């Protein structure tokens, strides 16, 4: 059926307009409400998308009788109360990352959604990109061999947030990708962060994760870099994969290279015998398309079929658990926190 799910999008700042556009463009949804605390934003969205009602009161938008699903692109500290109110009203919920500001709130939302029988989904948008889907396929197929390290750099200049630090703002993307690809939580985390520009929120940070079984990961996030970098490297015993999201042509490259340590006999115990192998580099074909279109389509699919979303509340909770531990580590000057 066409336009069966009536949607309210709350928050029309940076990310909200993209959600508005994609829900309006999907024939299975009807954009019923656009809401923002700034009246001019709500009015502009309503003019651009006729048929949508502009509101400035978030609670009124959540309780609107002609809304079936609520989409939150609001500040992180509002995710829990607004999502909780929406679930209590029997509405499906899509929440911009991260799901909530703490583990307890995320867990409560999951339980409330389960009891109400509604869909709770997190907008971990990168998991819906062809590139990340391909990475998951390559890793699951064993092409890289046993994973040994993961390194990520996600930096840019600006886009300072006033409610969360750079770890809560940028790291959820890479944490969600690694959670999806690796399939297990890290066993511990250590984070160093610093605040500059007369601010209290950290604007640069280094996140280190230990997954056990020889796999370690490092993430560098920053709002202070003069250049924009979005690069993820996944190393395996046999091959190495590099994902460069800003490359318009070859986002993924797989390097057929590895290092092998040869067993040393007693006479060679003082020397380390290492073989280096370097082979071909290949870039897999990737389908084109906007990831947010896939997010919207998947959300509507789950509403219609009752299926569990790829990025359900549990996926959101795992990321929140890591973020919460990261914050504890920052306060402890990089102290290692066990998850």
What do you see in this structure?
The protein is an alpha/beta fold and 339 residues long. The protein has 2 domains: 5-126, NAD(P)-binding Rossmann-like Domain (Rossmann fold), CATH 3.40.50; 128-290 and 322-338, 2-Layer Sandwich (Dihydrodipicolinate Reductase, domain 2), CATH 3.30.360. The chain is built from 9 helices and 15 strands. The chain has helices at residues 16-24, 39-48, 58-62, 76-88, 103-116, 130-141, 166-182, 291-305, 313-331; strands spanning 5-10, 29-35, 53-55, 69-72, 92-96, 120-123, 147-157, 188-194, 204-212, 215-222, 224-236, 240-244, 252-261, 274-282, 337-338. The strands form 2 sheets. It has a 9-stranded mixed β-sheet. Strands 3-2-1-4-5-6 form a 6-stranded parallel β-sheet, sandwiched between helices. It is globular and about 80 Å long. It starts with a strand and ends with a strand. The mean pLDDT is 94.
Keywords:
339 residues, alpha/beta, Rossmann fold, Dihydrodipicolinate Reductase, domain 2, 2 domains
Q: What is this entry, summarized?
A:
This protein has 339 residues and is of the alpha/beta class.
Draw up the topology in text.
Layout: E1 5-10, H1 16-24, E2 29-35, H2 39-48, E3 53-55, H3 58-62, E4 69-72, H4 76-88, E5 92-96, H5 103-116, E6 120-123, H6 130-141, E7 147-157, H7 166-182, E8 188-194, E9 204-212, E10 215-222, E11 224-236, E12 240-244, E13 252-261, E14 274-282, H8 291-305, H9 313-331, E15 337-338
Parallel strand pairs: 1-2, 1-4, 2-3, 4-5, 5-6, 7-10
Antiparallel strand pairs: 7-11, 8-9, 8-15, 9-10, 11-12, 12-13, 13-14
Helix pairs in contact: 4-5, 5-9, 6-7, 7-9
């Amino acid at each position: 059926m066409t336009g069966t799910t009536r949607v309210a999008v709350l928050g029309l700042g940076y990310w909200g307009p993209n959600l508005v556009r994609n829900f309006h463009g999907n024939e299975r949804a009807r954009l019923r409400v656009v809401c923002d605390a700034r009246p001019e934003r709500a009015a502009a969205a309503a003019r651009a998308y006729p048929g949508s009602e502009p509101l400035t009161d978030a609670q009124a938008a959540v309780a609107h009788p002609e809304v079936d699903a609520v989409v939150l692109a609001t500040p992180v500290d509002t995710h829990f109360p607004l999502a909780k109110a929406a679930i209590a009203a029997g509405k499906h919920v899509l929440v911009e990352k991260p799901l909530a500001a703490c583990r307890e709130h995320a867990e409560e939302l999951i339980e409330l959604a389960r009891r109400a029988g509604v869909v709770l989904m997190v907008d971990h948008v990168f998991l819906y990109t062809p590139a990340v889907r391909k990475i998951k396929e390559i890793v699951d197929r064993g092409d890289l061999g046993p994973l040994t390290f993961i390194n990520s750099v996600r930096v840019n200049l600006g886009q300072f947030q006033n409610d969360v630090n750079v770890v809560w703002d940028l790291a959820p993307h890479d944490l969600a990708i690694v959670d999806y690809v690796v399939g297990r939580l890290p066993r511990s985390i250590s984070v160093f962060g610093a605040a500059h520009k007369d601010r209290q929120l950290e604007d640069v940070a280094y996140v280190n994760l230990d997954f056990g079984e020889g796999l370690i990961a490092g993430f560098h996030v920053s709002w202070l870099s003069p250049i924009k970098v979005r690069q993820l490297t996944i190393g395996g015993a046999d091959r190495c994969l590099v994902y460069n999201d800003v490359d318009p042509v070859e986002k993924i490259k797989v390097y057929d290279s590895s290092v092998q340590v040869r067993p040393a006999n007693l006479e060679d115990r003082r020397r380390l015998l290492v073989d280096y192998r370097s082979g071909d580099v290949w870039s897999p074909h990737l389908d084109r398309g906007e990831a947010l279109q896939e997010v919207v389509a998947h959300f509507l699919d789950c509403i219609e079929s009752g299926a569990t979303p790829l990025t359900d509340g549990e996926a959101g909770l795992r990321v929140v658990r890591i973020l919460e531990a990261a914050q504890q580590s920052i306060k402890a000057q990089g102290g290692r926190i066990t998850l």
